[in-house]
Specification:
single chain, alpha/beta, Rossmann fold, five-stranded parallel β-sheet
């Protein structure tokens, strides 16, 4: 494993859910930064350094998850290390937009092995070792 753990930014406005996701990620050996709303996430992405992974909600105050993803794209140029976790994952427009962008999409109710698999897929694409 590298000397520095992979960095992940979690953009989520609901404190309990943000803590749950951040706890899962930290438990898998990632260094977690959190943003309480979309505007804060965009500021963090623009300020750098860029995290290795991004986990974002869709509906947040001040900027949507898609606006956060746009900032990520402007900085990184690729969304293979982006996961959108939202209660609106069943909405056709959200599904289509995520599919067109290539963003992994998960429903908030599905934070389980599918979330870990999505994180590991993104980390593998970046050649980050998350261990077993």
């Amino acid at each position: 494993m590298s000397p520095h753990p992979p960095q992940v930014l979690v953009a989520e406005d609901h404190p309990g859910y943000r803590d749950k996701v951040a706890g899962l990620l930290a438990g898998w050996g990632l260094a977690v930064a959190v943003a309480n709303d979309g505007r804060q996430a965009i500021r963090l992405l623009r300020a750098g350094p860029l995290p290795d992974l991004l986990v974002t909600d869709l509906a947040m105050p001040y900027a949507t998850g898609f606006e956060v993803i746009d900032a990520w794209l402007a900085a990184r140029g690729d969304v293979r290390a982006v996961i959108m976790v939202t209660g609106e994952a069943d909405a056709m427009d959200v599904r289509i937009r995520c599919a067109c962008l290539g963003v992994a999409l998960l429903h908030k109710a599905a934070i389980d092995a599918r979330f870990e698999r999505a994180v590991r897929d993104a980390a593998n694409w970046l050649n980050l070792d998350l261990g077993p």
